[in-house]
Amino acid sequence: MTHTFYDEMYLANGECRSHYREFTRWLADTPSDLLAQRRREADLLFHRAGITFTLYGDDQGTERLIPFDIIPRSIPASEWRIVERGCIQRVQALNLFLTDIYHDQRILKAGIIPPEQVLANEGYQLAMQGLDLHRNIYSHISGVDLVRDGDGSYYVLEDNLRTPSGVSYMLEDRKMMMRLFPELFAAQRVAPINHYPDMLLDTLKSSSPMENPTVVVLTPGRFNSAYFEHAFLAREMGVELVQGADLFVRDDKVYMRTTAGAKPVDVIYRRLDDAFLDPLAFNPDSMLGVPGLLASYRSGNVVLANAVGTGVADDKSIYPYVDEMIRFYLAEEPILKNVPTWQCRKPKDLSHVLANLPDLVVKETQGSGGYGMLVGPASTKAQIEEFRARLIARPEAYIAQPTLSLSTCPTFVENGIAPRHIDLRPFVLSGRETRLVPGGLTRVALREGSLVVNSSQGGGTKDTWIVGD
Length: 469
Known about the structure:
The chain contains 14 helices and 23 strands. The mean pLDDT is 92. Strands 3-23-22-19-18 form a 5-stranded mixed sheet. A 5-stranded mixed sheet has the order 13-5-4-20-21. By secondary structure, the chain is of the alpha+beta class. The longest helix is centred in the first third of the chain and has 25 residues, at 77-101. Among the domains are: 195-305, Rossmann fold, CATH 3.40.50; 340-403, Dna Ligase, domain 1 (2-Layer Sandwich). It holds the Pfam family CP_ATPgrasp_2.
């Protein structure tokens, strides 16, 4: 199977795309030894700042520096406006879907989504039924993963509505580029993103009906893979970073322990999963949560962002229905396309997937981080056969998609500049309005030919520029 890849920087005839011309000129005029020196500088600065992620199950030690590439991913403003509208439309529909399934369940009664797909889903939380949330917002912070196919069209690969991560790398990548290459930003108009923490804080405050609510960031602790980000966002917003042991519930209200005594907490930006939030309501063995938190939440005395039970909407078995959600709730056609998806729980889809495994990507419906998936074209016969057995044993736990021709962007690799596959995760904030900063996290698969961009699988990141047309 041959693929044609959309190159972000160059046209098929080798000519540079207009929004990359300034950068290409600069690149041609900059000595390669200076670039190499700046790259070393970036690594050193990232290391000093502690910009790492935790790699679980690795014998070499868990802390890793996420590789940073100094060639930015550039998107013209006119193209970005379409992406922005599409992401806003999608997140609005998903929030409406979550409100509906925990209340009237109109979409289930209309037969658009099979009820068992939702109600028997492990992300569906019975405790949320009938609970009214301020502004009916369940996912205050959403990450929408986008890829580009060979024809240049954007596709949504997946939605992240539980605890989407990566925004700190988006912000730090920009800071690094501005520090190392200020002349690049003087030469062209690159839309700013440094106001994201202010927007995030505004979104979190607007999630509460209170006048000036106290916001905290709840982290599982420093051994979590995204701890750097939790600490970074708390610092940038000027709010407290807390762990479960720092909070307690009294008379259905949440308080924070401080040196000056107990202080009420109104909004918790939680970066741990539902199961660990409250040992009295969910996993009784959790040492990370706050006993009584769910009762306080259900009483309306505290806001959790994102809401409990959002996971059902970003489950990969629900993903194929998002286009229908947009039509059902918004009476609009989807602006961004879904990737064609086979649901292995359907016998007809399963037989198609089993017959075409070497050409497909197969994912666990509950999986994330690039784990538990099969990339058929990059797998051995033994790996394919092992996955075939898994599919036959538990077909309902998997979906499959065609192998997309992910777009490429020139990237510094060991032997010079070469194209590498990328994706894009814009971050959508839902509060008084639904909005996003102009940009996102561009992840790059650094291994030649690899389509897996996750940092846990050897991927790196790039700064994402939205440039004036």
